[in-house]
Amino acid sequence: MSPRPDTLLSKINSPSDLKKLKEEQLPLLCEELREFIIEVISANPGHLGASLGTVELAVAIHYVFETPDDKLIWDVGHQAYAHKILTGRKDRFYTNRKHNGISGFPKMSESEYDAFGTGHSSTSISAALGMAVASALSNHNKRQHIAVIGDGSMTGGMAMEALNNAGVSKANLLVILNDNQI
To answer: Given 7, 40, 54, 79, which is the most exposed site by the fewest CB atoms within 10 A?
Structure first.
């Protein structure tokens, strides 16, 4: 199951392909991504709502930042379907969460774009902060570290502890709050 060949999405196999688009084409790409996610998940197992809510975030992050050099951490994996599609797994997306298919969550062994094996919620900020500190210690000071976390996950103690630690560090960390008002 692949996108129709006449779509923008059919031409995207990596963030470098995404960056070739003009900004005014991005809303159409987001619409096509949403349609593709709905089409695939309607016939296969998966989490629909959270991923539909992060389509624009995934497109914007991969358009602006230099992934995989810049480290992107999704707090919960079911937000990351657009990310998976934009990072070379579009043609295998129909295997999502199936035996021998792609993982339903970011998985480091699956793609260089999955910087952290996302599991339970509230861990993205601490993971990204740890990577940011490690980058600083290795003199990779230009590398960006992005944690995407939902408002529901922000209630977790691990997220609060990580924010507390980030507040006293000089680490290069960007926290994006996906406030979907849950």
So the answer is: 7
Produce one character per residue of 7-35: b if its CB has 16 or more CB atoms within 10 Å, e if not.
bbbeebeebeebeebeeeebeebbebbee
Distance in angstroms (rounded) separating the CA atoms of residues 69 and 169: 21
What is the rounded distance in angstroms from the CA atom of residue 45 to the CA atom of residue 24?
33
Dihedral, 84, 147, 116, 102 alpha carbons, nearest 10: -20
Assigned token pair, 68:
């995989």
Indicate the domain borders of the chain. Answer: 8-178
Q: Please give the model's pTM, rounded to 2 decimal places.
A: 0.93
pLDDT in tens, 127-182: 999 999 999 999 988 999 999 999 889 888 999 999 999 999 989 999 999 987 65
Q: For 103, phi and psi rounded to 5 degrees?
A: -70, 150
Q: What are phi and psi of 119, to 5 degrees?
A: -130, -105
54-58 own/partner pairs: CB under 8 Å, 24+ apart: 54/79, 54/80, 54/82, 54/83, 54/148, 54/178, 55/30, 55/82, 56/30, 57/82, 57/148, 57/176, 57/178, 58/33, 58/82, 58/83, 58/86
